[in-house]
Amino acid sequence: GQQICETVQWPNDKPYVIYGYGVVDSCSKLIIDPGVKVYMHGGAGLWIYKYGQIEALGTVTDRIVFQGERLEPEYQDLPNQWDRIWINEGDLNSKLVNCEIRNALIGLQAQTLPFTDGQPLSNCTLELENVRIENCLTACLYTENYRISAKNLLLSEAGQYAAVLTGSGQYTFDQVTIANYWDLDIRQEPAFLLSNRFADINGATQVRPIESSSFRNGIVYGNNGNEFKLDVDESANPLFTFEHFLVRTDQPTNAPVHFPVQSTIYRNLDPGFRDGPE
Predict the structure, then answer these.
(1) Quick check: 123 and 89 in contact, CB under 8 A?
(2) More exposed terminus of the chain, fewer Cβ within 10 Å: N or C?
(3) 197 within 8 A of 224, measured Cβ to Cβ
(4) Which of 224, 138, 226, 152 is nearest to 181 (CA)?
C-alpha cells in the first residue's frame, strides 16, 4: 500500500527491448541517455503514468530512437509495428530532445488520464525539441487536454492525422513541419487538426477553452486538398494565433483573432520539399 518513488536511468551501453508495456509509475522518473535505442516488440509501448516523468535527452550526434524491433530493410518504413508512447498528466514537465519515434500505431500520445474526474487540463507541459515522429498508422502526435511546447518538430506520414490537438490545451509551437504524404491507403483526415472538443470517458462530447497559444514558423502540407483544419467552438473563447505559416487548406484563414498578421499566412503554395539524408 505504499508508493515507491524511484529514478531509473538507461545508459547507452546496450539496446533496450520492451515486451508488453514499460510503465513509469506515479512519482517515478525515467532518464534516457543520448544515443540509446529503444526497440518495441509487436504491440509494446511505453506508458508514463500520471505524475510520472520522462526525460529523453539526446544530442544532435547521438539521437535517441524509439522504433519496432524488426531491423530488416523491409520493416524500415512499415507503420504499426508497436503501440505508442503514452504520457499522462502530472506536476513535473516531461521532455524529449533530439529524439526519433517511428513506425508506431500512435507515435506520441499526451493526455489527461481518461479515468481522471473531469479530465482537466494538465498542469505539466510536454517539451519537445528537435523531435521527429514518422510513419505511424493513426497519428504521429495526439494530445487531449495537454500543454505542449515544441521547437524544431517534424511530423510526417500518418494514416490519419500527423498532428491532432484536442480538448483544452496550451500550445507553443515554433519551427514545425507537418507533412503527410501517406500512400499506403486512402486518407480522409487532414494532416493537422486543432479542436477544443474531445470525447470523454462516457462518450459525451466536451468543449473546453484553449489557453493562450501560438503557432509560429511552420508548414502544414500533404497530398490531400485540405491538410489544415480548425474545428473549434468559439463560444469557449479559444485563444490561439498562427503567424508565418504555409498551409494547404480550403478553409478560410482570415479571422483576425486567430490569424492576426495576414501577410505571414501563405496558402496552397508549393513548399518545395526535397528528400534529405536519413
Answers:
(1) yes
(2) N
(3) no
(4) 224
CA dihedral of residues 256, 260, 265, 267 (deg, nearest 10): -10
Contact 60, 19 (CB under 8 A): no
* Residue keyed to cell 510520472: 52
C-alpha span between 156 and 135 (Å, rounded): 7
| Entry pTM | 0.96
Q: Are 125 and 147 in contact (CB under 8 A)?
A: yes
Structure confidence by residue, pLDDT tens digits, 111-145: 999 988 889 999 999 999 999 999 999 999 999 99
Amino acid at 45: G
Q: Cα(141)–Cα(165) distance, rounded to whole angstroms? A: 8
Q: Phi first, then psi: give them for residue 74, nearest 5 degrees.
A: -70, -15
CA-CA distances (angstroms) from residue 76 to 79, 102, 103, 168, 199? 9, 9, 8, 35, 34
If phi > 0 it is left, if psi is from -120 to 50 it is alpha, else beta; for residue 183 that is alpha
Q: Residue-wise over 197-215: b if at least 16 C-beta within 10 A, else e?
A: ebeeeeeeebebbbeebeb
